[in-house]
Amino acid sequence: MPWLKLLHIAALVIWCGSLLYLPALLSYTLQLRKDAGFAQGSPPMPRFFYNSVATPAALAAIFSGTLLFLFHGLMGGWLIFKLGAVVLMVVAHGCCGWLILRLEMGIYRGVKTASILALLLALAGILGVLGFVLAKPLDWS
């Protein structure tokens, strides 16, 4: 099953990169929208990136991680904490999707603050996953 582990790691790297890039893209799009006034429609890049890159990578990472868990019977205290960190990443992902919808509706209030919050949640989740995976060889329960 090395291909499954490779798929999981590759999807996780793409998802983590997307979670770090999306808040910056949202802030840039917010600035474009404020500067353009009513003359410009919403740039499609945030939605395209979210739907075509970030979400498929997230689904592939979660699905392949679930298969790894089922096939290898991984258990331990580290796994519960890792899944908690993954929940933070999922919340950051959902927050970015919500912010994209707000931008498309023309609601700009709080987008920058929420983008920073999404970035901080993503960073906490990413660092948590990395830390708990690296602590796994210590075999703590």
From TrEMBL:
**Family the UniProt entry places it in:** Belongs to the HemJ family.
Q: Respond yes or no to whether keyword RNA-binding is given for this record.
A: no
Q: Which GO terms describe its biological process?
A: protoporphyrinogen IX biosynthetic process
Q: Where in the cell is it found?
A: Cell membrane
Q: Which cofactor does it need?
A: heme b
* Any Pfam family: UPF0093
Q: Which GO terms describe its cellular component?
A: plasma membrane
Give GO MF terms, alphabetically: metal ion binding; oxidoreductase activity
Its membrane topology: Multi-pass membrane protein
> Which keywords has UniProt assigned to this entry?
Cell membrane, Heme, Iron, Membrane, Metal-binding, Oxidoreductase, Transmembrane, Transmembrane helix
Q: What is this protein called?
A: Protoporphyrinogen IX oxidase
> InterPro entries, from UniProt?
HemJ-like
| Ribonucleoprotein found in the keyword field | no
| Substrates-to-products reaction catalysed | protoporphyrinogen IX + 3 A = protoporphyrin IX + 3 AH2
Q: In which pathway does it act?
A: Porphyrin-containing compound metabolism; protoporphyrin-IX biosynthesis; protoporphyrin-IX from protoporphyrinogen-IX: step 1/1
Give the transmembrane region(s).
Answer: 6-28, 48-71, 77-101, 113-135
